[in-house]
Design a protein that fits this description.
By secondary structure, this protein is of the alpha+beta class. It is built from two helices and seven strands; from the N terminus they run βαββββββα.
Length: 90
């Protein structure tokens, strides 16, 4: 199960609590850390409608949209990692 962790240098939110995506055969789990604990969202891979890549100068964001219209923006990944995430989920 690949796990991708955003760079701490990418955005202000990622300095202390970097975004994290875990991908397995059935689900994608998004974690966003908080001062106490974390928020997690689990999406079944069968419910993914689209995966988009938004690139900046150094880092890239992955936008995952579900069939129901829910959207997750995982921000601040290295470009190579972001491309690998998109390739796994497309």
């Amino acid at each position: 199960m690949p796990t991708y962790i955003a760079s701490r240098l990418s955005t202000n939110d990622n300095i202390a609590f970097p975004d994290r995506l875990e991908i397995d055969a059935n689900n994608v789990t998004y974690y966003k850390g908080n001062v106490i604990g974390h928020t997690s969202v689990v999406i079944a891979r069968a419910n993914i409608a689209s995966v988009k890549l938004r690139t900046g100068f150094f880092f890239a964001d992955v936008i995952i949209e579900t069939i129901g219209g829910k959207q997750i923006e995982a921000m601040g990944f290295r470009k190579g990692d972001a491309r690998a995430i998109v390739a796994l989920l497309s």
